[in-house]
Specification:
It is elongated, with a radius of gyration of 15 Å. The protein has 175 residues and is mostly helical. It has helices at residues 2-11, 16-24, 30-54, 58-85, 93-110, 114-143, 147-174. Helix 2 runs parallel beside helix 6 (114-143), helix 3 (30-54) packs parallel to helix 5 and helix 3 (30-54) packs antiparallel against helix 6 (114-143). The chain contains 7 helices and no strands. It has a single domain, classed as Ferritin.
């Protein structure tokens, strides 16, 4: 966790504090979990769209396209599930912290161009996926009460772990 926090601080992403709130909150409910998961996915869709608008690097653009496609697909499944279950996702301190951190990171990335943008975007993706995957493993999945929600989160964890590894490979190539 300390290594992840250092990486997040280095890239300017402030979401770890939001996930720390979730990890310390044993009473997190399914409506809050759904909102956190959806928010994390929406953040990565937006970041991917930003990368598609700014990057000219094929590997970065391909990765960004994958993030938009995969995270939107998972969020679409999450929306369908909460509708089916009659659950209203509940905004909470963690999802608010995620959104605030993402807005700051979006603004920081907006000031960069070329290779500097590509490197910062991919480093952020590595850190973001590490943080989200850690929260999925340690808090969100174990805290989910509904089996279908838990299953969707587990599927997301598998996919997002692949995203993390993909981002790590791209980051190594960009150095």
């Amino acid at each position: 966790m300390l290594k992840t926090m250092k990486m997040l601080a280095a890239t300017g992403l402030l979401t770890v504090s939001g996930f720390a709130l979730a990890q310390g909150n044993a009473g997190i409910n399914d409506a809050q979990i759904a909102h956190i998961a959806y928010t994390a996915g929406a953040i990565d869709v937006a970041a991917g769209k930003q990368a598609l608008a700014k990057s000219k690097n094929k590997a970065v653009r391909d990765f960004a396209s994958e993030m938009v496609r995969d995270h939107q697909a998972v969020n679409d499944k999450a929306i369908a599930l909460v509708k089916k279950l009659g659950v209203t996702p509940e905004d909470n301190a963690t999802s608010k912290a995620l959104s605030a951190g993402a807005a700051k990171e979006h603004d920081a990335l907006a000031k960069l161009n070329g290779a500097a943008f590509d490197k910062a975007y991919v480093q952020n993706e590595v850190a973001f996926h590490r943080t989200v995957n850690g929260a999925l493993k340690t808090t969100l999945i174990p805290s989910a009460k509904n089996g279908e929600l838990k299953s969707l989160l587990e599927t997301g964890l598998t996919l997002f772990t692949e995203h993390q590894h993909h981002a790590e490979h791209i980051a190594a190539d960009l150095h």
